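Second attempt. The first submission of 3-dehydroquinate synthase had a stray character pasted in from the spreadsheet, which I only caught after the job came back as garbage. Lesson logged: always re-copy from the clean sequence file. Corrected sequence (352 aa) follows.
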Amino acid sequence: MKTIQAATYPVHFHAKSYLELSNLIAKKNYSTIFILVDENTIEHCYPKFIPNLSTNKRIEVIEIESGEINKNIETCIGVWNAITELGGDRKSILITLGGGVITDLGGFVASCFKRGIDFVNIPTTLLSMVDASVGGKTGVDLGVLKNQIGLFANPEMVLVDTTYLETVEEREIKSGTAEIIKYGITYDVKLFNEIRSNKNLKISDLIYRSIEIKNEVVLQDPKEKGLRKILNFGHTLGHAIESFYLESEDKENLTHGEAIAIGMVCECYMSSKLLDFPAKKVAEVKEVVVSIYTKTNLLKEDFTAIMDLLKHDKKNVNGQVNFVLLKDFEDFKLDCKVSDELIIESMAFYNS
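This time the job returned cleanly.
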């Protein structure tokens, strides 16, 4: 696959990516290579990765606990302390080997350590391949509030090797699929139609096109002043739902993609009421979501708590929740104001 050139870094694929990483390490003469993993990637991905890394530099592995619940500043402090104790300096490099939590948190850690060291993202889940590892966003959660602390920082490169997907469960593949659906609905309906028809799906092609789309959007709007906001479709309400399930002791956590899928259905419904998005297409999106994801019953008594979390969304301005809504597939409107009543009505629609 041809390398995709982002603003300041390349996205390499498969065998070429390891050669390019080894060349980078030799060229920049890093003092130490730190590799950030969790308990899953140290067992399943690290043994695959390390034989492909050609270097005589010192390698140190730092392991954190997996899961969104550990994507916080306390984990960052632990990683910063580990890098310090292991002799990290400004000529060190951090390689993130894992899913979205690892790439988001690792990029943030690297960007802040000694005011910034180089980092490379190696995503190992579908979600991180098509979304988290590309685009220059890094950060952590504040309590259950998603991505409240962070900054824009670009890696030296991103390496995409789809064979890592063999190490993840089907639920994680489905989680990443939600982001591909988002790209299809907002930017390239061919992607949505391919998933909807479920015929001759080539995951590598879906990944490549998704990265192309995200890169095209980010190149035009790196700091999310306009066009890049379309990448938030489904995420405004979806993040609130994800946070609610994360903080609920009596409910099983939702994956990011499961929550975003619900958010997309709800935001399509809002679009139909405010922008005349065709009801037939709302039904198509809901049909696809329900066919892929186990239906989550959003309890009516939980709506108020979800609404409270929605008001903390990082994209809000002056306390106003802003949505990306659709007039049609590939035809969107930014910064839409939606009443609380319609938001609640949309969740009831998802339940119906």
